[in-house]
Structures are given as C-alpha cells and as structure tokens.
Design brief:
- The protein is globular.
- β19 (283-288) and β20 (295-302) form a beta hairpin.
- The protein has a six-stranded mixed β-sheet with strand order 1-4-16-6-14-17, with no helix packed on it. A five-stranded mixed β-sheet has the order 3-5-15-11-13, with no helix packed on it. The chain has a three-stranded antiparallel β-sheet with strand order 18-20-19, with helices on one face.
- Helices cover 11% and strands 34% of the residues.
- By secondary structure, it is mainly β.
- The protein is built from three helices and 20 strands.
Length: 315
Amino acid sequence: MTHHSLTAEPTHSVWDRSLHPRLRIESGDTVQFECVDASGGQIHPGTTLEECQAIDRTRIHALTGPVWIEGAEPGDVLQIDVLATQHRGWGWSSIIPGLGFLKDRFCDPYLFHWQLNGNETRSLAPALLPIRPFLGVMGVARAEDGSFRTRPPGPFGGNLDVRELCAGSRLYLPVYNPGALFSGGDGHAAQGDGEVCINGIECPLDVTLGFKLHKQQPLAGPIVESSEAVAPDLRGDAWVVVESAEDPATAARNATHRMIDLLVRHWGLSDVHAYILCSVALRLRLSQVVNEPMFTISGSISKAILPERELFAIS
C-alpha cells in the first residue's frame, strides 16, 4: 500500500473520460486530496454578496483528479473508503434567485459566512451546529464520450450530496472506463438532507481516501456503507414536522416551509437564516408510501442544535 498526495490545481468542473489522469495508483493505495470549495476558490472569508454574484459559474464543483486506478476495467466495482477529513476553519452558504427548493419564497440573493471551530460552529446563533465534513461530489468517469457538467448525479456517482459520506463511511461505484478515473470535490462542513437553499456549508476540504478494486462485480449504481459514528445527532430527540400530499415534492416543500416558520416563531431566527439552517441541518425523510395516493414526508432538526423551548405553554 502506498500513500499519495494530490493538490487541487488544476481542477476540472466536468465529467469527461478523455481527461488526462493527474495521478496513477494501485488498488489498496490511499490518496490525500486537496479540494478547494465548490466555487473553485472564488469565494473566501470577506467575499461580498456583489463579488459572489459575479463569480464564474462554469467553475462550480471544481474537482480534484482524475485518479487512474491500475487494473480498473468496465464491469469492476471501485470501493472508496473515507478515512479522514479536515476543514480549514471557514465556509459559506448562499441563496441564488431562481434556484433552491423554495425559490418562490426566497427571491433575493444572499451570502452567509461561517466560522468553523473544530467540530462545531456557532455562526448561526442560537443554533449550535455539529460539523461532519464530507465531499458532495465523488465519482468516476461516465460511460459516454463528451464533456458533461457536474450538477446532475448518476450511476457513476457525482453530485450525490449524501451527508453519510463523511469519515468512517465507504462508497461503492461501478467502473465504466479503464482506470476508473475518479474525481472528488464540493466539500461540505455540514449539510441537511435536501440541501434546500442549494448549499450546505461549502468549504475547502482535505480528504484522505482509500481505494480498492473488486473485479467484475455487478453494480447498477452507488452504494454507501455508513456507520453510527457518521451522524450521532440523529440518535437524540428532534423536532419533527409532518406533511402529506399526493406529490412527495409538494409535501417536502410544505414541511420545509413549516420548519422555517417554526424556527422563526420560537427561536427568533430571520426567514433567511432559518432557510440556511434548514439547508445545513434539516433531515427530510419519506415516512410512508403505502397510503397511496398520499405520501408522507417528515422534516426533523435535532433538539441538540437548538436551545430548549416549550412550544405551547400549559394554560
């Protein structure tokens, strides 16, 4: 087993199997990836809203790689072990007009800066948010010829935004090309299920990954192997809003709206700060599908994140 290091530059912001690999490794090797933030290093502490709006969006999801794994062939499975993550003390979240889950309610641009202190952040008081960094994008080169933007995920992985992919987890991906051509980026210090405002806590991240090949194994798409240590906040008490509708997306939007309203009314957050908190801490879950045509979505936030409250005083 050999340990390698790979600097971020030059990054790339597309999936393209013709990209020249920046590093060649063997199955069993580990790699420390230096990853810039999702803006490609264009946003940093002190960036103004006006500067944020002027960034080159073709550089979004600046990825580190590709990495060639010797012996990888189409039909193999690539195992990626997330061994360690390290943020650099800062991050950001934004609202972009026309994007996000609640774009009709939040129409104005906004930029929020986070200070990350070890394993928590108090930047969005009164919330105390745990930090569990992970890469939002991890994938191998797609099977097709051509250059493809990174926003849509697929069976190759890519922009999965699965918060369980922090240190201690394992990702399995099908291989479509010789060498697999793995790339990663889009570091998040924290993210809720749904990433509703369009961002988690976006941040530069150093990530150590281990790679192992499984020869000629059937796999239709990504599989994540997680552990209890990944999200211990889920084991505690939570505030949960419940919504049902014939369209699951409508139920999820309604649950998100109601959680924002709850945070504003009982914890004194502004609308926009409540939206950002939901984007980095809300858990959206499909609670039931059997009562067709109605589907039920629950949205929860751990009580450990917020000061204790009695919602309805006893009369």
